[in-house]
TrEMBL record:
Residues 38-85 form the HTH cro/C1-type domain. Residues 13-27 have a biased composition (Basic and acidic residues). Gene3D superfamilies: 3.30.450.180, lambda repressor-like DNA-binding domains. SMART domains: HTH_XRE. This is Helix-turn-helix transcriptional regulator. Residues 13-34 are annotated as: Disordered.
């Protein structure tokens, strides 16, 4: 089994190297008379900062299990995407490294999706730290100005325990559901990003100033909710019922929430 894994890693490295050109890396001259595509092994090894002998053994499936440092060096040399890096780590028998924080930028296509549904349904997007990144016009009209200023002004967990506006919009039962989910999701976020000072500071803030947060935190729940029925008190349209569903973009750790109106 380990031998098959080594051969799989070697094949993956060969394919990655074949897809590269000297123009992909500073300091490497263009070699126009090559008969094969990609970089030479010595060129790739130089970029990664490892010996060409060891890199050759990796490609041939004859090397010992590479360290995480070697794998990270290869990932930088190949400029692997998050998905490609995770695949290479698994081929090497290692758990993929966790990103230090969710992606800061929204995929353009995802933003277009939100905007295209203005006349269809409310859609929101938040990251794995529970910060609201975007919402379409339908969501803004539905929920109103529930987010504020300050370091946690756009954080869902913080607003769940401090915003009067959310309690007005969701009612007592909905607000109780939100605070329970928010505490559980914050616990999950802290487990994913344990060194994130923003999340640690948020936890300290809520622990010190919200007895309601402490009550929910003591339940020890971890976020697992992906769908729910929500009631929203609209200022002019009355009580509206929605089925909410969350979809995950794992590479960026972004969550898209769709609010589908329930038909009477």
């Amino acid at each position: 089994m380990a031998e098959d894994r080594q051969l799989g890693l070697g094949e993956y490295l060969r394919h990655q190297r074949a897809d590269m050109t000297p123009r992909d890396r500073d300091g490497l001259s263009s070699l126009s008379h090559r008969r094969v595509p990609g970089l030479r092994r010595q060129e790739l090894a130089s970029v990664a900062g490892i010996s060409v002998e060891y890199y050759t053994r990796l490609e041939q499936g004859r090397a010992s299990r590479p360290s995480r440092e070697i794998l990270n060096a290869l990932a930088r040399a190949f400029r692997l995407s998050e998905a490609e890096l995770e695949h290479m780590f698994r081929l090497a028998g290692e758990l993929p490294p966790r990103p230090r924080a969710p992606a800061a930028h929204i995929r353009p296509g995802l933003q277009k999706l939100l905007d295209s549904m203005d006349d269809t349904m409310p859609v929101t997007l938040h990251d794995g730290r529970l910060d609201m990144l975007a919402f379409n016009a339908a969501a803004a009209e539905l929920f109103g100005p529930v987010f504020g200023d300050g370091p946690y002004g756009r954080n869902i967990a913080y607003q769940a325990f401090t915003s009067v506006g959310l309690h007005t919009v969701l009612g007592s039962a909905g607000a109780e559901q939100l605070t329970r989910v928010a505490a559980a999701e914050l616990r999950k976020a802290l487990s994913l990003y344990p060194e994130d000072e923003y999340l640690r500071s948020l936890f300290r803030e809520l622990s010190a100033n919200s007895s309601e947060f402490s009550r929910h935190w003591e339940r020890g729940e971890i976020g697992t909710w992906r769908s729910a029925m929500k009631q929203v008190n609209h200022p002019t349209r009355g009580v509206l019922d929605f089925d909410s569903q969350m979809l995950h973009d794992p590479e960026n750790d972004h969550w898209v929430m769709f609010f589908t109106p329930r038909r009477a």
